Amino acid sequence: MPRPNVAIVGAGLCGLVMAIALERYAPDVDFTVYEAAAELSTVGAGVGMQPRTWFTLRELGLEDALLKIAGDGKQSKLTMLYRKGDQRDGFTIAEASLDDQKFATFHRAELQKTFLENIRGRDRIHLGKRLASYVQHQNGEVEIRFQDGTSTTCDLLVGCDGIKSRVRSVLYTQLADAAQEAGRAAEAEELRSCIPAVFAGVVAYRGVIRRDIDEETEGKPRPLNASHLCIYLGKNKHLVAYPMTQGHTRLLNISAVVVTPELYGITYEGPWVEEVPKEEATSFYAGWEPEAEEIMTTLNDWHKWVINVVKDLPTYVGGGVVLVGDSAHAMTPHQGAGAGQGFEDATMLARLLAESPVDQAALPIALKVYDERRRPVAQQVSAFSLRSGRLHSFIAPELTSVTEELSASGQGMSIEQLKKLAADLEDIKAWQKVTTIASEYDTAVERLREELKSELRAIPTEA
């Protein structure tokens, strides 16, 4: 039987990596990318890349290209500092070397440009094609309908269309309708609750400080000429600053985070991204250590990002439809792993599709293995990220008695407590060191081979 024909919905970072992975691992699989926007552009600034992600992209042949745009243009790997930042006499709690972990930072626009340049079949990317809906036919064919009135068909629809995923919306509407028709009303209600993203109780004020005029910054102490990643910790909020580059311009990426855990899970009614006055962002950090205040007051153009997440889904697959990246597991940014998890999704899916027995008939088996292998990992990383963000903001059961005022006075937590907190934060990141995505890819492929052999044995031979 013929190999599956793949339609990728969404040409963001994950959609482009999906295309690169198919070209590398499954070159005989035909694919097309459909992007809603009329032109490829990017929103956002910094992207962190963990060791597992770096391995994945290196295996895709992207390492040399990425090294040219990584870090601050001078070095690709960083040291991380944890500082007690919400008091005037701030100090470093702990330092973690990231050199052996291959942690790197990127400007999102540069990353997207690099991915696009590494797709050989760029003519396969079609712009201005916003998904309206899709229908799955009994023969396994998926009919895709676009808002411009056109349609197309495929064997596999890959939803790489982000946190507001239309693919997820249609998929879970169909799953809920089927449950409702079968008389499982409670299940139907739970499935419908998976469609909208929910507020994570986190707001990030983001911006970028340009450092391209060397005489203004060269020789200055941190923070404006920092060559490391620094997290300034405080009660109910924290500040993240790290260097990156865009072209020949050196930048300092800033994310000032305010955490309200009791609001987790609500539907946020306002805009998710909006430009805000400088005073709104800086007001949360008044009285912090001079380093933090210098960062906040130097940056003039601020955007407020309301961090929403996708709740843990019971499946990433429905028939000939599969979710990848933020459409499946949009998470908080505190582990620097959200984009990377999407890249792992795309690469594992491509490697499974690369197995020569995976034709249209065997496609459901490959998707079953993908869901079994990727969903638990991504959801665990999402949980780790949420906990990291709360610890960055001194939010934990043992810290409920620590108020903002007490923490600002320097009396809320002992040095021992702070060092333990920093150690806990490093422990939460241990999965990046003790797990290897290479072994997970290989295990998934082996599992697929076993499933395919079992399926072949189950097919009766003709007399």
What's the arrangement of secondary structure elements?
Elements (H helix, E strand, L loop, with lengths): L5 E4 L3 H13 L5 E4 L11 E4 L1 H9 L3 H5 L11 E6 L6 E7 L6 E4 H10 L7 E2 L4 E6 L5 E5 L4 E4 L1 E4 L6 H16 L3 H8 L5 E13 L3 H4 L11 E6 L2 E10 L2 E11 L13 E4 L1 H5 L7 H9 L3 E8 L7 E2 L2 E3 L2 H4 L8 H17 L8 H30 L11 H5 L6 H14 L2 H4 L2 H22 L5
Parallel strand pairs: 1-2, 1-11, 2-7, 4-13, 11-19
Antiparallel strand pairs: 3-6, 4-5, 8-9, 9-10, 12-15, 12-17, 13-14, 14-15, 16-17, 18-19
Short description:
This protein has 463 residues and is an alpha/beta fold. The chain has helices spanning 13-25, 51-59, 63-67, 108-117, 166-181, 185-192, 214-217, 278-282, 290-298, 326-329, 338-354, 363-392, 404-408, 415-428, 431-434, 437-458; strands at residues 6-9, 31-34, 46-49, 79-84, 91-97, 104-107, 125-126, 131-136, 142-146, 151-154, 156-159, 198-210, 229-234, 237-246, 249-259, 273-276, 302-309, 317-318, 321-323.
